Amino acid sequence: MAKFWNFVLFQAGWFACVIGAAHGQSFWPVLATMAYLGFYVWRSSSPIFEFKLLIKAALLGVSADTLIVNLGYLSFNDSWFGPHIAPVWMWVLWALVASTINQSLSWLKGRTLLGIVLGAITGPLSYEAGVRLGAGAWVPGYEVIGFILIGLIWAAAIPLLFYWADAPIKQQLEQNL
């Protein structure tokens, strides 16, 4: 049942942050999503490990999205720190994705090729949905390049998140041998 609620709350957080950004009102959705992430970490069997995973994902996300913005392929609405850095609501969404790695997406563990394919497809589709809901915009003339770039980023991000999620487990196994 935890995996079900993880999936439902992921979807709710995604919609709240995107709709909030589309209307210039991302503060409350970000706060609510962060509260969920805090609860998720607190309820985890390895809270420090999960917290580190969420932080790594947020840092990866802010780096990737800031690069895309500065390359001139995408712009986001409701950017708290200015137009040249990914908005906080996107940082939270990257952490939210990481919260699914050991829960609702755990079925994907060990299926790297499938993770690459799903990341390459669902990543850009998620951004496109956000654009269509008004949370951002593709820069005219660069829509296809931006879409492809996001696909490549997410094709790498999903396996990387799973690697980060498995790394401490592998280290512990090696220490016990």
Pick out the low-confidence regions. none
Indicate the mean pLDDT: 92
The total of beta strands comes to 2
**Form type:** globular
Q: Biggest β-sheet, characterized?
A: 2 strands, antiparallel
Order of helices and strands: HHHEHHEH
Please list the strands of the largest sheet in the order they lie side by side.
1-2
Strand content: under 5%
Please compute the radius of gyration using only Cα atoms.
16 Å
Number of helices: 6
The N- and C-terminal alpha carbons lie at a distance of 34 Å
Estimated helix fraction: over 70%
Structural class: mainly alpha
| Oligomerization category of the chains in this entry | single chain
Describe the fold and architecture.
The chain is mainly α and 177 residues long. Helices cover 75% and strands 3% of the residues. It contains 6 helices and 2 strands. It has helices spanning 2-22, 27-43, 47-71, 88-101, 112-132, 143-176, and strands at 74-76, 136-138. The protein has a two-stranded antiparallel ribbon. Helix 1 packs antiparallel against helix 2 (27-43), helix 2 runs parallel beside helix 4 and helix 3 runs antiparallel to helix 6. The radius of gyration is 16 Å and the shape is globular. The chain starts with a helix and ends with a helix.
